[in-house]
Specification:
about 50% helix; about 90 residues; alpha+beta; 2 strands
């Protein structure tokens, strides 16, 4: 897998940030739980160009839980949360 991130050493901080944001996204959490069971996106490839933040990371993780092959690219390097990007690798 190719990636261009600031440093993999930031991954732990990114994971904590993603988990913190998930606490405030209860609907997405319910969808993710259902997706883990049903895998409705199995076999689907999804590419997204988004601001890489803890919130969009939770969206990407939900899509992946649903069985999708997810590819994410940053839409704006100034809004990219480097620790979150490192955690997604």
């Amino acid at each position: 897998m190719k990636y261009d991130i600031k440093s993999l050493n930031l991954a732990d901080a990114g994971k904590k940030k993603i988990e913190w944001a998930a606490k405030f996204m209860p609907v997405l959490d319910l969808i993710q739980k259902r997706f883990r069971q049903e895998k409705p996106l199995k076999g689907i490839k999804i590419a997204a160009c988004l601001h890489v933040t803890s919130e969009t990371a939770n969206l990407a993780r939900t899509l992946k839980a649903g069985g999708a092959e997810v590819h994410l690219c940053a839409s704006n390097p100034l809004s990219t949360q480097d620790e979150v990007a490192a955690s997604l690798v």
